[in-house]
């Protein structure tokens, strides 16, 4: 049976059927595993691998595994942070040593938390640290593989754009404020993702309703894709009404059956009310929206300032590893957005896609029956 039609110009640009993209979510490979990325592409949208933090060889394997599951277009999202702490170590072991020497209070605080919860003494066992060289290697992998879209989360992708274009990739850049959109345009990206404050993960300060039309105006004639707080067809219809040509959906796919975050994390999202998804800086050092838990509360109470990238993340990666080993996902960082308050059950990604498409068509058609409009 033919799929219901919901097309914008973006579908031609990206060679997809419906203008719905799985947001690239970097969560050590768990949030956007190959099965989920492929399922979204197979359903007519575009799956995007959240590659941030994945060692280049692991990223390469994730791309190849996705390719074994779908021949349709896929993307990869990487974070290109503008600022990385000066002189940070090149391996986890080096960064841990620096943490002990420079930030003993933070290290002692985390050790105290681990003792309080009886967590085991385990650490992340790969040595990869996000550095300028690491990111260059990741980019090299993306450009060498069979990938159609490169998306840049944080930072300035100007150095990637010429080579990506030469390889035939479409480049997307995330913007959390109209002035970031201008920076992305200057960098030469083809599509801007306007990501509002409601979003899960790293996010800015401007809510989607205020942000999207401003980014549409700033980016014109470049297309804008809306992100942040979109979890059903009504959200898609609203984003299109604000001038976006498509949507970039993260949190709503975290509860997909194919998503590889733990079942307990999915339950936290399903059971959470919108106010339970709060902004804090103790996960990576940058503002990010996560499910609130006792670990964030303890950091806040400690009065310790979050550390710059990559220190806070390396410290918390080890804590999270210990929490996973102990099966304590209630203590683990769980990035997710305010729309979690609307999600009620785990579903296969194909069904999430079907419902997004049919819901958008219904919402758009419903407008015609509910409104009387006309000039004069
Ligand atoms: C678990 C998680 C991890 C994320 N990681 C990244 C990332 O690595 N790069 C990025 O550009 N955005 C990242 N984001 C933000 C998403 O790309 C997207 O903008 C956001 O999820 C959209 O809002 P929504 O969650 O309300 O759908 C992440 C979001 C979540 C929930």
Key words describing this protein structure:
alpha/beta; TIM Barrel; eight-stranded parallel β-sheet; three-stranded antiparallel β-sheet; binds flavin mononucleotide
Folded structure, characterized:
- The protein is of the alpha/beta class.
- It folds into 2 domains: 9-88 and 129-276 and 339-354, Aldolase class I (TIM Barrel, Alpha-Beta Barrel), CATH 3.20.20; 89-126 and 294-333, no CATH class.
- It is built from 15 helices and 11 strands.
- It has helices at residues 9-14, 34-42, 56-69, 92-102, 104-117, 132-144, 161-166, 178-187, 208-219, 233-241, 251-254, 263-271, 294-302, 311-325, 349-370; strands spanning 20-22, 47-50, 74-80, 149-155, 170-175, 191-195, 201-202, 224-227, 246-249, 277-280, 288-291.
- It is globular and about 70 Å long.
- The model has no long low-confidence stretch (mean pLDDT 95).
- Flavin mononucleotide binds next to strand 3, strand 7, strand 9 and helix 11.
Walk me through the topology.
Blueprint: H1 9-14, E1 20-22, H2 34-42, E2 47-50, H3 56-69, E3 74-80, H4 92-102, H5 104-117, H6 132-144, E4 149-155, H7 161-166, E5 170-175, H8 178-187, E6 191-195, E7 201-202, H9 208-219, E8 224-227, H10 233-241, E9 246-249, H11 251-254, H12 263-271, E10 277-280, E11 288-291, H13 294-302, H14 311-325, H15 349-370
Parallel strand pairs: 1-9, 2-3, 3-4, 4-5, 5-6, 6-8, 8-9
Antiparallel strand pairs: 7-11, 10-11
Helix pairs in contact: 2-3, 3-6, 4-5, 5-14, 8-9, 10-15
